[in-house]
Predict the structure.
Amino acid sequence: MKKLVILIVFCTTVIYANINAIVSIVPQESFLKAIGGEKVNISLMVKRGSSPHTYEPKPSQMVEVDKADIYFTIGVEFEKVWLPKFINQNRDMIIADISQNISKTKNPHIWLSPSNVKQIVLNIYNQLVAIDKSNTKYYKTNLDIYLAKIDNLDLEIKEILKNTPKGSYFMVFHPAWGYFAKEYNLTQLAIEIDGKQPKPKDIINIVKEAKKQKVKAIFTAPEFSPKVALQIAKEIDIKVIKISPLNPNWFDNLLKFAKAIQ
């Protein structure tokens, strides 16, 4: 009888065990939480306030890799260095690319476009269902709710930007907002060039272009030094606005950005 009880407890634990998942960056955590809900345990690699270009995992995070059932990749620079090491450490871990079916440029910040995020959460849903079919209805309900919220966000951004001329320029230090610019017919003018600080002659050209396009502000991210942005802002007498592409409040962050451009 005792063995039967132990067997029942074991089977129940297996049936109701959550999926142990790892994501690289904060926005992924928000998207996976929205679709996976209480069925998924999420571990975050690149901690808040850190840059996915240079981050190195802590020993405690490497322990999480051993426990993981699945790793959701999104194509940030951090993954190029560390993903092979994670795979070598846990060969049973599924690798799921949630950037599939998204038209990409060299810019990895695909999550800063509502239409891209609709595809991202659909990719998450498909992967969760593939490994946990018993909870398909639960994931589908969450997906439908989230897609409707994204549609509402898109309408709200379009309303905010309705009087902003097509092709209008905005200036950023790190070129993270290219997908947002493309989606809403804007033009991103970046200070950073190929991931490197601009040279003095580059700064002169950037200042000339900013004046020509009547740029009103420079957007910087707290993950990067604002030194050059402040220098350029002083030169052309415009504001510096801090906004992180890794903000966990994805909806509010995109609205804030749209309002700042407006």
Summary: The CA atoms of residues 216 and 238 lie 6 Å apart. The radius of gyration is 21 Å. The chain has ten helices and eight strands. Residues 17-157 form a domain with the Rossmann fold fold (CATH 3.40.50.1980).
